[in-house]
Structures are given as structure tokens and as C-alpha cells.
Amino acid sequence: MSEELKKQTILIISDDISSIRILVPILKFDYSVNAAFDVRRGINLAIEKHPDLILLDTVMPEMSGYRVCERLKNDEGTMDITVIFMTSETSGRDELKGYEAGGVDYIIKPLNPVITKRRIKTYLELKKQTDFLRWMLRERPREMQEMEKEYVKP
Known about the structure:
Low-confidence stretches: none
Oligomer: single chain
Strand order of the largest sheet: 2-1-3-4-5
Strand content: 15-25%
């Protein structure tokens, strides 16, 4: 399958079956979706599949989502994966903890499918743009220099 047609990938890491039952049906037509019900399987899938985005529950039995995120962000192979936390916690302290761990956003439970899908779409569009710019810098440095001359005036 060509890169243009390849679906972006999402990994859901949550022990909350109801969240997974809500998310998979609303995402599976637009994205390739994998789910893990436990932390170890989730981390292994993140390393193996290198998804474009991870939806990560903050409260799980084996390890908190914050610790999972820190672990992923400290690994060179997974550090650039976008992480959005899912939580029923609404305190500013918890939100700050998530940002400090490396997450980019919070989705509050119970999940609103429309809002959730829009947030995911926004972050995956940003991911596409970032990937394209990285590719341009690596593969087409001359074109990037010409664009900079044209669009960035001294």
C-alpha cells in the first residue's frame, strides 16, 4: 500500500472495556486501531507497531498511564508518538502531571465520541504535517532552503 493511502494508526491502552467499546467503532473506518487491556501489552504494541497516536488511560492496575507515558517518552523508538490521556480525573494537578509526563491533551470520561474523534483528527493532522516537514528536511534540503527564502523575509 502506498504511503499516501496508508491509514494512520492509533493504539488504545486501557483496562476500561467501555472506553474501548466506544472508541474502536468510531475510529476503525478512518484509522488502523489496536487496543491493549494491560500496560505490558500496550508498551509492547507501542514498540512493535509504532502508532501515530496513543490513547492512554491514566488509571490502570499495573502502572499509571503517566508512568507508561514517561517510559515511552524516554525510549528513542517511541518518544515521538503522540499521547492523549483519557481520565475521569478533572483536577488541574492531574492534568499538569500528564503534560509533564509527555502527553499532549486530555479527554475526560465519560467519552464524548464526537469531541474525542475531533481531537484525535486534529493531532493526527499535525502529525502528518510534522512527518512531512521532517521528510523534507531529510530528503529535500535544497527545496526547503528555497522555500525559506521565499516565505521568510529578513
